[in-house]
Amino acid sequence: MHYDISFPHLGIHLEHVGKTISVFGFEIAYYGIIIGTAILLGFVIATSEAKRTGQDPESYLDMGMFGVVFGIIGARLYYVLFSWDMYKDNLLEILNIREGGLAIYGGVIAAVLTVIIAAKIKHLSAPQIFDTIALALLNGQMLGRWGNFFNREAFGGYTDSLFAMRLPIDAVRSSDVTEQMRAHIQMIDGVEYIQVHPTFLYESLWCCALLILLFAYRKHKKYEGELFLLYMFGYGLGRAWIEGLRTDQLLLPGIGLPVSQLLADVLVVTTGVLLVYLRKNHSRYSMLAKKSTGK
C-alpha cells in the first residue's frame, strides 16, 4: 500500500500519511486521537460558555460524559444501520471504530436526546443547554472530519478543480471508487492514482466559517435555543450540498436515496421555519420556556 496524499494544483505533496502512530509499542489511530482531542476541546468550549452565561460549568462536565458516550454509540449505530451489508456477516466488526464509521447525525441525535432527558431530570432549560453546547458540537465536527483525511474516506467523485486531492487507488476502499474515477486514473511512477473532491476538507472549512459566525453572534441572540437552531440550519445547508458529492453515501434500504442528504434537507426546512417563526414570537416563547423550568 502507498501512503502519499497530494493536492497537485495547490502544490502540496505529503509523502507518508499513516493511519496510526506508535506510542511505546502500541498503535494508536489518528482517527481516535482527533476524536479525543475534539471531545476535550468541546468540554473546554461548553464549560467556558456556561461560565460566561452564569450557569454551573460542573453540570456540563456531568452531562458531557453521558453525551460523549451516547453520542459515540449513536454515531456508530446510525452508520451500521445504513451500512448493514458491511457488518451482517461479522457482527464483532461493529465494535471496531478504529477504521472510522461514525455518522455525525447519529451522534447529534443521541446528544439531543441526552440533553432533553438531563434537562428534565435536573429541571434545567434544554434550549439554554443546546445553545451552550452548539459551538462545542460544531468544533467537534470541524476537527472530526480530519479523521477521514487520515483514513482516506468520505471523499467525493472525480474532479480536476483547484482543491482536487490525489490518492493511491490501493489506499482506498474499492467500493468508494466510481467508474468516472477509474476513467481518469493517473499512472505516476508505476502507481495508480485517483483524483477526487476532498469533501472532508469542504465540510471542515464550512464548519469553521459557521463556528466563527456563531461565535460572533452568540451575544446578540434573541432567545434561548436560537444559536442551536442557527447551527443546525447552517450545518444542514452545507451538508446538503457536500453530501451530494460523496461516493460513500449511506442509502435508505429499498429506496436507494442518500439518507444523510435527505436528513440535511429536512433539517434546513424545519429549522428555517422555526427560526422565522421564533424571530417573530420569541418573547412569548421565552416566557413559556421559563415556566417549563420553574424559573
Automatic annotation (TrEMBL):
Transmembrane segments: 28-48, 60-82, 102-121, 200-218, 225-242, 262-278
One Gene Ontology molecular-function label: phosphatidylglycerol-prolipoprotein diacylglyceryl transferase activity
GO biological process: lipoprotein biosynthetic process
Its EC number(s): 2.5.1.145
Keywords, in A-Z order: Cell membrane, Lipoprotein, Membrane, Transferase, Transmembrane, Transmembrane helix
CC annotations in GO: plasma membrane
Binding site for a 1,2-diacyl-sn-glycero-3-phospho-(1'-sn-glycerol): R145
Involved pathway(s): Protein modification; lipoprotein biosynthesis (diacylglyceryl transfer)
Family classification: Belongs to the Lgt family.
Name of this protein: Phosphatidylglycerol--prolipoprotein diacylglyceryl transferase
Lineage: Bacteria, Bacillati, Bacillota, Clostridia, Lachnospirales
